[in-house]
Amino acid sequence: MVYEVHILHTGYSRTVEGGTEANCTCSIIKGKYNLIVDTMTPWDQEIILKGLKDVGLSCEDIDYVISTHGHSDHTGNNNLFLKATHIVGFCISYKNHYYDEPFSKNEPFILDEELKVIPTPGHTLSDVSVIVNTLKGTIAVTGDLFEREEDLIDDNIWRNAGSESPDNQIKHRNMILTLADYIVPGHGPMFSVPK
């Protein structure tokens, strides 16, 4: 079955007086397995419910909830998906059962030959990214490994957003750039990987 990637919400991040204003990009991967990646803040429930309806899904149709890392703007509505397996960074769980995870051994969690979750630490030490093959090409949903397309030119953008391991972040950013045709970053629109 062919996978499709739908952006339910395009993230943003901007400096404001007294701090930062930000929300993450929220994506749906639709196919043999249905995934939601990064569920925004707790105040964004209506955006998610409407976005699911627009792509012909409901909360009950989601098989996996992926939070690329555990920051609050990426986990805020995970509780809407009670029939799904949850992957939050390196943690894989369903209800109160926690599964052995492959990420700390630098191995992927493979759903099928077209869809996998891979470890990409850097922004946090337990970041993951989703790699999905579509008719459009290979799409990497990376969370804050990439803040937005502009950080390809200005690495101060991702560095200033916080990085628990800049060396790992550089390594995993380069790896994604060789794997993907398109990147869905944590706080900006999807972009094509420059050749």
TrEMBL record:
**Which reactions are catalysed by this chain?**
a ribonucleotidyl-ribonucleotide-RNA + H2O = a 3'-end ribonucleotide-RNA + a 5'-end 5'-phospho-ribonucleoside-RNA + H(+)
Principal localization reads cytoplasm
* Domain Metallo-beta-lactamase span(s) in chain numbering: 23-187
Check the record and name the InterPro entries matching this protein. MBLAC1 (IPR039344), Metallo-B-lactamas (IPR001279), RibonucZ/Hydroxyglut_hydro (IPR036866)
Alphabetical GO CC annotations of the entry are: cytosol
Origin superkingdom:
Eukaryota
Gene Ontology annotations of biological process type: RNA 3'-end processing
Subcellular location field:
Cytoplasm, Cytosol
Question: What does it do?
Answer: Endoribonuclease that catalyzes the hydrolysis of histone-coding pre-mRNA 3'-end. Involved in histone pre-mRNA processing during the S-phase of the cell cycle, which is required for entering/progressing through S-phase. Cleaves histone pre-mRNA at a major and a minor cleavage site after the 5'-ACCCA-3' and the 5'-ACCCACA-3' sequence, respectively, and located downstream of the stem-loop. May require the presence of the HDE element located at the histone pre-RNA 3'-end to avoid non-specific cleavage.
Assembly: Homodimer.
Q: What name does this protein carry?
A: Metallo-beta-lactamase domain-containing protein 1
Give the originating organism. Ranatra chinensis
